[in-house]
Design goal:
2 domains; five-stranded parallel β-sheet; alpha/beta; 17 helices; elongated; Rossmann fold; six-stranded mixed β-sheet; 43% helix
């Protein structure tokens, strides 16, 4: 366990290495460290050294028989050889003076066998004080700024969001989904069994890292006594960066699966929830939800309180949304009298719900009406945030009934209306577009709306449940920012 200054000094060498050796690499992209070599070549990392005594070249690069034959400086070695050859590879790294070894190979303590546990322990003892280990059984590190990647075929976008994950699969999903959303990443670390460097080590680094503003964590459990270190690192941190956590192993069966996956101790989920609440951590239940909450933190103002206005079409839908928000601890208060009067002037139709929730009915066909309604609502002193919901099949349905509706134009104007409100409001407005149909046409309509809005930096949600959970995390984040002594970036 490093202190904060040591963590920055030491781990900077990992994320910005002078050279990377790939032990076991060949021309076969699906074997061992070869997939990493291919990804690093594609990412543009300049100093790569394949190590394999059986090949002269790997993917066009000269192969070295041993890592200590490499003439250049090597700060990181990626080991992807059969398990029985890993100890020799680690010894070679020590001889070369390598700072870090990422062990991709699996089959160690996560197997639960005496052989696997003993072999991992032997690796740690051999490396202690000479070489820092990432893994085994992991994907290692991803850092777009230094052109380190393990994934291919998408743009590596540098930004200020980081993730530490005990699952390589979830870490990969995070990187790919972030690329789809054009969300920049500072670092992603897949720690696997975390036999040496663990979640707490990387968390301490990221809390002090000037390139990281938001931190995500996928946790299955902790090694013995690591949980207390994790708690203290966050509690003592002065940076107060947003930290989002997806904690797995909530059930007895899940805890058993955790032990088989990364040899971690899942611990009590109720105790974790209690600690997370004390620390102001933002709890999520999937990588998708983590990404959605991060994007909201980056693009929306934080709500001043728990009071929500609901604007949409359909009285029954509005009532069920109100129930859902109330169960999460939000309030759906009655709007001021003057706001109700403005709403009825805009909607005009008899029977329109105007108190909150607001049923805009057919008035929502005109984007100008949505703009005027949203402005009326956000100016209400009783409201801290707004959820605007609409069924994606609403406009096509009216068109099929014979109404003259230019769906493409209305969609474009609707984006402009919401964008106008967003730019002139200090209150968050979350847009939810749902579909009552599973047909391909309905999905295409939803995707078109999502892409049009996303092109303007407005992220839409496919369900009220998703939007409400994101809003809850924004609300919690606002509370954390107001804690005594808090210094925050967002």
């Amino acid at each position: 366990m490093f202190d904060q200054i040591e963590a920055i000094t030491h781990l900077d060498r990992l994320f910005y290495p002078r050279g990377i050796a790939l032990i076991g690499a060949s021309d076969n992209p699906v074997r061992g460290s070869s997939s990493f070599l291919q990804a690093l070549i594609e990412a543009g990392f300049p100093r790569l050294y394949p190590v394999n005594p059986y090949f002269e070249k790997a993917m066009g690069l000269k192969c070295y028989a041993n890592i200590y034959d490499i003439p250049g400086e090597v700060d990181l070695a990626i080991i992807g050889v059969p398990r029985q050859l890993v100890p020799k590879a680690v010894e070679g790294c020590i001889k070369k003076g390598v700072g870090f070894a990422h062990i991709f190979t699996a089959g160690f303590s996560e197997t639960g066998t005496d052989e696997g546990i003993e072999l991992e322990s032997k690796l740690v003892n051999t490396a202690k004080g000479k070489l820092s280990l990432i893994g085994p059984n992991c994907m290692g590190i991803y850092c777009p700024r230094s052109r380190i990647s393990w994934t291919r075929h998408h743009e590596n976008i540098s930004g200020d969001v980081a993730l530490v994950s005990q699952s390589g699969g979830h870490a990969t999903h995070f990187i790919e989904l972030a690329a789809e959303k054009a969300m920049g990443i500072s670092k992603v670390i897949s720690v696997g069994n975390a036999s040496d460097l663990n979640v707490s080590d990387f968390l301490k680094y990221l809390l002090a890292d000037t390139e990281t503003g938001i931190i995500g964590l996928y946790l299955e459990g902790f090694a013995q006594n690591e949980g207390r270190d994790f708690y203290n690192i966050i509690r003592r941190s002065n940076s107060r960066k947003p930290i989002l956590v997806w904690k797995a192993g909530k059930t007895p069966d899940g805890a058993r699966a955790v032990n088989s996956h990364t040899a971690s101790l899942a611990g009590s989920y109720s105790m974790f929830r209690s600690a997370a609440s004390q620390l102001g951590l933002l709890i999520v239940s999937s990588i998708d939800e983590m990404i959605e909450s991060i994007l909201a933190l980056k693009t929306l103002p934080l709500p001043g309180g728990p009071r929500v206005a609901v604007l949409g079409i359909g009285g029954g839908q509005s009532v069920s949304i109100t129930d859902h928000l109330s169960l999460l601890g939000f309030k759906v208060p009655v709007l001021e009298r003057k706001t109700q009067e403005r709403i009825t002037q805009i909607t005009t139709e008899a029977g329109t719900m105007a108190k909150n929730p607001i049923d805009a009915s057919v008035a929502s066909v005109d984007p100008q009406n949505i703009r005027d309604l949203l402005f009326a609502i956000i100016e209400d002193k009783n409201i801290d945030s707004v959820i605007f919901h609409q069924n994606v099949g609403f406009l096509p349905m009216w068109k099929k009934r014979g109404a003259y509706i230019d769906v493409a134009r209305i969609r474009k104007d609707l984006v402009k209306a919401v964008e106008d409100v967003k730019e002139n409001s200090l209150k968050p407005v979350l847009c939810v577009f749902t579909s009552r149909s599973n047909k391909v046409e309905a999905f295409k309509e939803w995707s078109s709306i999502r892409d049009t809005f996303q092109g303007k930096g407005i992220y839409v949600y496919s369900s009220i449940e998703k939007a409400a959970k994101v809003l809850l995390n924004l609300h919690i984040r606002n509370r954390v920012r107001r804690l005594p002594g808090a210094t925050t970036r967002s």
